Each structure stands twice: as C-alpha cells, then as structure tokens.
Amino acid sequence: MKKLFFVAGGTGGHIFPAISLGQWIEEREMKNVKIEYICGSRPLEWEIFSQNNIAPTVLPIEGSPLGVLKAGKVIRRLGSLFSAFLQSVSLIREDRPDVCVLFGGYVSFPPMLACLLHRIPLVIHEQNSVAGKVTRLAKKFGIPVLSGWQECRPLEKDQFNYVGIPIRKFKKVDRIEAWGKLYTGVDFPKGAIVGVLSGSLTSSPLFKTICELASAPDLKNVTFLVVGGKGRCPDINTLIAVERQWDMSIIYSVVDAVIARAGASTLSELMVLNIPSLIVPWRGASDGHQVRNAVLFEKETMGNFVWDEQASVFELKHHLIDCVSKVDNGTKLDERSQRGFEDRSCERIWDVLISLMRRESL
Q1: How far apart are CA 198 and CA 260, in angstroms?
Q2: Is 175-332 a CATH 3.20.20.140 domain?
C-alpha cells in the first residue's frame, strides 16, 4: 500500500483542493493508497476537515512570522514553526510516506523541510496564479510545482506544470427546496438572487458597496444573499445574510449570479459551474495574487466582470444589471461539465504522483 502525506492548512482555498484530490484518489485506489492529512492549528482548519469526516494531524502552527510587527508574536510563531518541524520529522520516522503533496502556504514549510531532510519525494500544488513564498522556495529546492492556472508568476512556463485545481463535488438541488434549507425566514424571491461570497463583511468597504447596490431603485427586485456574513443594511429587506455553508450545492443551486472575491478555488468552482460572476479582488492579498487571479478568470471565461473597489459603484451596478438580465437558469450546476473538469485536474496530479512513486521504487 502506498502512503501519501497531504499538507494543507491556513484557509479553505488550500484545504478544499487537497480534500477533493484525496477523495478522488480514494474512490479509485481505496485498497492501494492511504492518505494522511496534515494541517495547522487554526479552528477553521479542523472544522473544514471534520465536516468532511477527516481527522487530520494538527501541527502547532497558526500563522507565518513574516509581516508580523510585534516582536513577541514573531518569536512565538518562529517557535511554533520549529515545533511543527520536529513533529513533522517524528511523523516521517513513524510512518514514512512514499510522496508528500504540499498545498502551499505557511503550513507547508515545516513538513517540506522535514521531507527534504529525509529524502521524501515532494510536489507542491500552487492554487494561485502568483506563486506564494513557500512555492517559490520549493522551486529553488528543485521540488516540482503544479499550477492551478496556465500562469504561475514569477515562474517561467517551463518551471511549472499546469494541472488545474481540484474542486468540491456539487449536486443540483431544486431551487425552492434549496432556499428552504437556508432557513432565511423569507419566502422564495420572485426576482434574481445574487450570492455574495466574501465571508464576514460587516467591517469591509465591500459590505457598504453591497448595501448601496441593494438600496438602488433599479435593483429593487434583486435579492442579495450574503454567505457567511453577519452585517445588516437598515430598512433593506432584499439583503439577507446566512451562515457559512460547507455544502455549497445549496448556494450554487439557488443563485442566479455571484459577487465574489478572487480566491483561486472559488474562481475555479464558478468557472466550471458556469455561474455569471462579478469578481472583486482583495488588493491586500499577498503578492497581489487575487488581482492576477481575477484577470485570468475574466480572460478565460465569457460574460464575467472584474471590478476594482476603488472604481465607481455605478460601473459595478451597470454590469450587475446586465448580468442578471441574461440569466439562464438551465445553465447552473451542470454536473457533467463539473465532472469533466474535476477528473482532468485530479488525473493530471495523480499522473505526477504515480511518476514520482515509480521513480522512487527504481
């Protein structure tokens, strides 16, 4: 039996592709492969894994020391990195993996060093179109880089292998039934439903923008469904906040269009499910990766729009009106197109892993 380490943590953008790939592999190689998931110690990480019936190995690390201004916090995080490295070494000595797959971010750093020390074959999957710090370092160590996009700046084309991003499985749900499962306390809307996928928006400028859109007379028949948000706009009944949804099938079955940040995993889901989208990249993302993700998303899809928060809200409203006016309910959540996309990305990654394991056995 082959043993794989999947190192994924920090955010859902790193974790969901790991889980999706792992489920794909286990469905096909259940008797031949064992996967051990490794994550950091943020509560969100454990919550995501537990929702998928996975008990990961938790490293004592919850953030990178880079960019931290307080000396005490830097020292604590450096200490946690060292502890995570020692735990990674212990894991390898107890149960040596055939291959370790890193899914980027600071959580990948300690296991990467431990695997290099013990000559464990490594590969890193970069979800964003701009390589993160750990990915760039991995490349310097000669670790193969698999990219979710056909671009992985600042790497050259011959320095990475495009594979795509494994996405979660979704099932189409009747719209009215799906709306009922959201427990909004509101009857199913007669007009278009726009999902807002940006987490908690209560203190962000984007939330104010959504409130402004919801109060616009020419959007009075549009319902804004804020997923994971807790904010409220006074006297606006068409803005509804619902709790974070781990099964996005319900949300994707309900919405006619989406306003979202430019996280790579979210964009991949919207792309393959063919949901009309207005993307608002967060400019504070490391290395500007959300801006570049959004540019590539707009380039690779048709009819979607990227809006800069510094631009006029009128421009966003104009494109939103155009977007909901062209809605075709029959195009949402096409399971056939999803299956084809997912299979290709997972198969490409699995081919690389098979190649590494065969090379190691020679």
Answers
A1: 6
A2: no
